[in-house]
Design a protein that fits this description.
Elements: H1 2-18, H2 23-37, E1 39-45, E2 48-54, H3 57-64, H4 66-69, H5 71-78, E3 84-89, H6 95-101, E4 106-111, H7 115-127, E5 134-137, E6 140-142, E7 146-152, E8 163-164, E9 179-187, H8 188-195, E10 202-205, H9 211-216, H10 219-223, E11 229-235, H11 240-251, E12 254-259, E13 267-274
Parallel strand pairs: 3-4, 3-10, 4-5, 6-9, 10-11
Antiparallel strand pairs: 1-2, 7-8, 7-9, 11-13, 12-13
């Protein structure tokens, strides 16, 4: 591709021009060039402009395809009844967390365990001056509290198909792991109890892998009547995994109201809305994970 060849040529030019400097000055010059060339993209939205600071080509797809990648997720956020609390589990570089943060009255908790994506998420929050509305946490959500490893298919910002304490993606395929990053995991219920947090009103779960375990660790939260709606990633094909995810949400009092028509690499989004009160009792012999 022309852009790749041009990028390589510019890189060689910077390396050549800085080669005459002393070693530490040479490194300093090259880092300053990298910092100066970091691209900012401005995306116009119905709630005002968003700024994204892109540090890797893979992360560029999110602002570039902002309006077309997941229009149903944008519409879901647009429909939030405010004031409200929104939890974004699997926030990546923060597209939806930051978009939601543009709306007055939306308090956002964004969870992203992958180090490079978390750094980009924080930088984007800073670039949009939304630190009073959007709080980001570098933790993994699962079915219990544990120290473990996040198995990464890529170490760059914007990477996908990463899994905490698992090597399988959402299709059951083995992840081509390039790095195992140490990570602390929590269940949603345990995280809330530990830090005294109210239940979110809106919950998005998009982690490309362990959605089932995350729901298993959210029994109390799913039954909390303050939780109004859940958006979760499903497989585009009808699968037993989809049935289990849908069944868990229906058992907690949610009805399946929308399936996205946009197929992103074999996955779609499902939206579930609170339809009934759920009796706050545990099934026989089952306990809520900590």
């Amino acid at each position: 591709m022309v852009s790749k060849r041009f990028g390589r040529a510019l890189t060689r030019l910077v390396i050549g021009l800085s080669a005459v400097e002393k070693p530490w000055r040479r490194v300093d010059t090259r880092l300053r060039v990298v910092e100066g060339l970091l691209a900012e993209q401005r995306v116009e939205t119905r709630h005002g402009p968003l700024i994204f600071v892109t540090t890797h080509p893979q992360a560029l797809q999110y602002p570039r395809e902002f309006a077309t990648r997941e229009p149903e997720t944008l519409a879901w956020i647009d429909a939030f009844a405010t004031p409200c609390r929104f939890w974004d589990i699997g926030a990546n570089i923060g597209v939806f967390s930051i978009y939601a943060g543009l709306r007055p009255g939306v308090e956002v908790h964004a969870f992203e365990p992958a180090a490079a994506s978390y750094a980009a998420l924080c930088r984007n929050i800073e670039a949009n001056r939304l630190s009073d509305r959007v709080q980001a946490y570098c933790v993994a959500m699962s079915d219990r509290a544990e120290l473990g490893r996040l198995n990464l298919s890529g170490t760059n910002a914007g990477s996908v198909f990463n899994a905490f304490e698992s090597t399988n993606d959402c299709f059951g395929n083995e992840i081509a792991v390039v790095f195992r990053q140490g990570m602390v995991g929590f269940s949603i219920d345990g995280f809330r109890r530990l830090f005294g947090l109210a239940a979110p009103n809106y919950l998005k779960i998009d982690v490309d892998s362990i959605e089932e375990r995350i729901l298993a660790g959210a029994c109390e939260t799913l039954r909390d009547q303050d939780l109004r709606s859940v958006l979760i990633e499903l497989e585009a094909e009808d699968t037993s995994r989809n049935d289990r995810l849908t069944g868990a949400l229906e058992a907690a009092g949610f009805g399946f109201t929308l399936r996205s028509t946009t197929n992103q690499g074999g996955v779609v989004n499902g939206v579930f809305e609170r339809t009934a009160a759920c009796v706050a009792t545990e099934p026989s012999g089952e306990t809520v994970p900590p």
